[in-house]
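Hello,

Our lab assistant flagged a job as stuck in the queue for most of the afternoon. It eventually completed. Since we weren't sure the result was trustworthy after the delay, we are filing this so someone can double-check. Below is the sequence as submitted and the structure that was eventually returned. Let us know if re-running is recommended.
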Amino acid sequence: MRTNIEERAQDLAAYIIEHKATVRSAAKQFGVSKSTVHKDLTERLPHVNPGLYKQVRKLLDINKAERHIRGGLATRKKFRGEA
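-- returned structure --
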């Protein structure tokens, strides 16, 4: 029997895959913390739906590899007064 937490983990994974979203944007969309999203996706999802976990893991790895670029762009924007 699936619990609400397991359903949330699958919903988060589906959202991230569908929207190519980051953990932060998924957390904001679902009204939970980044830590909760990360725990759901990395610890709970592999036991509930291993196939979905493999798909979302690829996106999480891509996001992790690109995060320093997004951070640099955000800093540039901040100091140029654009945001």
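-- support follow-up --
The delay was a queue issue, not a problem with the job. The result is valid. Residues 4-79 form one domain. Residues 5 and 40 are 8 Å apart (CA to CA).
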